[in-house]
């Protein structure tokens, strides 16, 4: 129903003892590697007094479990420096992201979670709520005021992570609305097409990129959209927001209802059906992986890419110019729907959270010593180390911004695993902003700021539904399948309505009831 991008039904957390065996599949791998563009924090800010540790204090030993989004665990280069800065002895337990849920579930079921347990994404967090309610994790809200740097975390985002109004987690921040379209500006310029300002102009661009030989090779071998098998982090949800569809759930006649019960969702399906029927999107997009969709774009065969983040423009440009040296990319997100309004869907402001299991942390004193480590993590010196690496090796400072080393492989191997665990965002932890040199990327950062002004929140982000926790992902698959079948012409409107009726009978009505009860509290 909500933020799931898993390929199969994600198994849910049972409240007191065990997690069901986890299902493998793609998690949210769209997380931006760039802090929000509007940071006012300075990397030279002085660490707060509470982050200082007496020189003769014994190092705090902490074991940390977290997902690994690189091919291998990092060497100790960053960890050694981190231990010096924070007076800790750290034991990092990295597990491959693709199978992280399985490891997480097993560790929970056997009572072997470490003191610091990162989840995988917002979906995993939602599935963990019943265990949180059951008292398996420490509530940290009462201690936050004791840590001046942790106290800088954004209240609105913290609220989105609360369970029954209580705070149990720290968050890894992300821009609220970073989605939009990345397109071949050189193709648009050649064909005399301006950046699209509404969904009709976007459709016209996709059509022109397919029919008007934008690469000039005299062959009809290009298409408009390169899309993939993901309704959320592919093109569908972003375009659906432009059509005015609510963000997962919306209010209708005084009641919260899921997005697919709104006419805007139907209109979006009609739009994608028209794109596919016209040949303006890859015909098999519902069976296309992210890698294949990206390759379609970077090979020079497609002109429009809509993924989880416009910040992907850097990596797309890097690979595209290898194949098409004269290619130029730009981005756009201020695209109005049929009613003339611009709307963007927002994430809850976090990519992942970290929890503190009671099975591993024996008492309040130990919890506070661990929170003190995270308080130090939110000083500029430590945040820069974990996010950017070692100055002079992994990055340099240019005009007060971080310029990543040209040795991308070194940065990926040594820094990326730690970067994915940094608490907060640039506004709250003071780390350097990136030095963006690609014109399209500079434009992207401007658009992200504009996106937030048109952002629409998910009203159920901090709400509870036992049925969602138990069956939400399984039920969503019914709607996902029906959506693809509708776009492919295998279902008509009546058939799609039958899928909704089936969703309601199998637990959807109960989910609606529960979310509305929580909403009205």
UniProtKB/TrEMBL annotation:
Chain intervals with Low complexity compositional bias: 36-51
InterPro entries: Bact_solute-bd_prot1, SBP
Organism: Paenibacillus protaetiae
Keyword entries, A-Z: Cell membrane, Lipoprotein, Membrane, Palmitate, Signal
Signal peptide (residue range): 1-21
CDD domains reported in the protein's UniProt record: PBP2_AlgQ_like_1
Record Pfam families: SBP_bac_1 (PF01547)
Full protein name: Extracellular solute-binding protein
Annotated stretches, region: Disordered: 27-60
